[in-house]
Amino acid sequence: MTIDQEDGEDRNTDESYRRGFRDGFDDGREKAGGDDKGSDDKGSDEGDKSDEDEDGEDGDDKPPLYKRPKFWIILIIVAAILIIGGTLFWLHARKYESTDDAFVDTHIVRLAAQVSGQLTGVAAADNRHVEAGALLATIEADATQATVAQAKAQALQAEAQIQQSQAQVIAARAQRAQAVDQARDPEAQAAKAHADLDRYIKLRQLDGAAVAGTQIDQARQQAASADAQAAASRKSIANADAQIAVAQKQVKAAQAQKAGAEAQIASAGVNFKHLDIRAPVSGQVVNRSVNIGSYVQAGSQLMAIVPDAIWVTANYKETQITLMRLGQPVDIQVDAYPAVHFHGHVDSIQRGAGQAFALLPPQNATGNYVKVVQRVPVRILFDARDGSPDPRRYAIGPGMSVVPTVKVR
Fold it and tell me: Tell me: the pLDDT tens digits for 89-141?
């Protein structure tokens, strides 16, 4: 006997059992409700049994799911949708280069005191925007004013010395002129005495009895005396010249002293200007560390300013900058404002990876080199035109994380 025959006998046995059970149930109903009603119920039971037989036969003959045409049609449609969608996504994604290694950056301006002193005023501008030239702090002016007054007094004293030295120059020049005038007579007397001596000597050479020796000796004595008086006159003139030079040097010294006093005045004036600490650029005041009454030293930091001009420093992989060019549009998403899409453009690309500018650059000539994809800093500027969101309207500052996406195709 085959397996199919055994299954058929089993089904016949089950059907016979169910039929006998139903016949007994129908006999009970006939006794309770009459012959007509029993006959109708019996007919309906026979119909139900025939339907159940047909359903059982259909369930046994139903093919598996993978053999149905509808399954393959649906599978082909889904596969086509996935392939087309993946292709379109790849074609779209290859146009962009994105990275999460990017941060907002700017040149933070740190304000420091240039003179020492006590703060007499500090603007309440913490985390507030200020314009360039706004007064942020004031240092006491007492010491600087005293320095200016002292320098002005020294300048006046030097001016008086200049005038005094100039007067001495005038007096020395007058003395020289007087010495020159006084030297004219001794010079003339010396010239006359030498002329007389020469004449006596020539006469004696012509006639020894014409001139006595005492006359010649007297003439020589007069010539020597006249020469001495002339030399003294010349020394008086030289002394007057020296006095003129000394007076002129005193004038120059007084002028130098005056210049030094004026330089001190100018320096004190500069220091006086440095007493007022003003904002060099427009931006937001942050990191204030002083208050009214604080004593500050020259060079100590007081506060910092985050300028309005900010940008994004994005560290792209070196394999991502192949098609990157200056001016390409960038979509910027700031982590703090995920719903806002800022716009910008590529401003510059650094020539060199970031590790080349480290404090201790890597030495790859050791023999244990492992190639690692390097990062290249790319500067991206915000664009606040054409209806794009203005980053200055949001609390965006240096160090905040962003995700820039550059359209390279």
Answer: 777 667 889 999 999 999 999 999 988 888 999 998 889 999 999 999 998 87
**Angle CA(390)–CA(392)–CA(395) in degrees, nearest 5?**
115
CA distance linking residue 361 with residue 355, whole number of Å: 6
Q: Which residue has the tokens 């991502």?
A: 320
Longest dimension (CA), the chain: 218
* Tokens of residue 69, six digits: 């045409």
Q: Please, what are the domains in the chain?
A: 3-62 (no CATH), 98-106+306-407 (2.40.30.170), 143-274 (1.10.287.620)
Q: Which helix (H) or strand (E) holds 357?
A: none
Cα–Cα distance for residue pair 193/74, rounded to 1 Å? 149
Q: What is the identity of the amino acid at 371? A: K
* pLDDT single digits (tens) 201-240: 666 666 656 556 666 666 666 666 666 666 666 677 677 7
DSSP letter string, 128-166: -EE-TT-EEEEE--HHHHHHHHHHHHHHHHHHHHHHHHH
* Sheet containing strand 117-122, strands side by side: 276-278, 135-139, 117-122, 295-296
Rounded Cα distance, 26 and 28, in Å: 5
Instruction: Report d(CA 144, CA 231) in Å as an integer.
Output: 59
pLDDT, tens digit, 9 for 90 and up, residues 254-306: 778 778 777 777 777 777 788 889 999 999 999 999 999 999 998 889 999 99
Measure the CA–CA gap between 109 and 227, rounded to whole angstroms: 82
CA–CA distance, 305 with 288 (Å, rounded to integer): 9
Cα-based torsion angle of the residue sequence 217, 220, 226, 230 in order, rounded to the nearest 10 degrees: -150
Amino acid occupying residue 369: Y
Find the radius of gyration of the CA atoms of the chain: 59
What are the CA-CA distances from residue 167 to residues 30, 164, 239, 244 (Å)?
A: 161, 5, 17, 10
